[in-house]
Each structure stands twice: as structure tokens, then as C-alpha cells.
Design a protein that fits this description.
Elements (H helix, E strand, L loop, with lengths): L16 H18 L5 H9 L3 H14 L8 H40 L1
Helix pairs in contact: 1-2, 1-3, 2-3
Length: 114
């Protein structure tokens, strides 16, 4: 049975940062050589056997990270995720402390009424 090698078919493959950076460099080099953006991502993706949309998103993110276009950089995104996680943990801790304070406050009231 032949293996399906459609480059537009979604995959679950994980690419290393070196593979991504190499693909981005290839796209940029091809764009400079041809003097156009048209079709460069698809050509590089096909040549490497990667998904076209994967390569397109890597180029877009590299442009953002390097300040060529506006957007949320990789480091800003990572910082936001870390802050959101910290916020969830703090909310959880506050809820535990509120419940503990309520429990011990009720205990003190019971002891005081005896």
C-alpha cells in the first residue's frame, strides 16, 4: 500500500527549531532570488516534504519575532502563558485559604459559644 505524501494533509509530526529555522531561511533566500513572495512557501515546503501551512506559519512567526511585522512574539506568548498559569495557581491558593479561614472561623465560633 503506497504511503500518502500529500504535503497539504495535516500531520502530527513535530519539527525541531533547527528544521523550522532552516525552512524560514530557505523561503527568505528564495524570495530574495526571485524578487517575489508568490509561491515561495509552497515551493520550499514541497522541496522539504513539510506542510505548506506549517512553513507559512513559521515564516510569519519569524517575521514577528524579528520585528519585521507587528504581532505577538514567541517570547511574549511564552511569558503570557506563564503569567496565566501563575494567575490560575494564585486563584486556586486564594480559594483554599478562603475555605480554610471560613472553616477555622466557624470552629472558633463553636468553641467560643461553649
Amino acid at each position: 500500500m503506497p504511503k500518502d505524501t500529500n504535503p497539504d494533509k495535516p500531520t502530527t509530526r513535530r519539527y525541531s527549531s533547527e528544521e523550522k529555522a532552516s525552512a524560514v531561511r530557505m523561503v527568505r533566500t528564495l524570495r530574495a532570488e526571485l524578487g517575489t513572495d508568490h509561491g515561495t512557501v509552497k515551493r520550499v515546503a514541497t522541496q522539504l516534504g513539510y506542510g505548506t501551512e506549517s512553513v507559512r506559519s513559521w515564516v510569519r512567526q519569524a517575521d514577528i519575532d524579528q520585528g519585521h511585522v507587528a504581532g505577538v512574539s514567541t517570547s511574549e506568548s511564552a511569558r503570557m502563558k506563564a503569567l496565566e498559569q501563575e494567575n490560575r495557581e494564585l486563584k486556586r491558593a486564594n480559594e483554599i485559604l478562603k475555605r480554610a479561614a471560613s472553616f477555622f472561623g466557624a470552629e472558633l465560633d463553636r468553641q467560643h459559644k461553649k
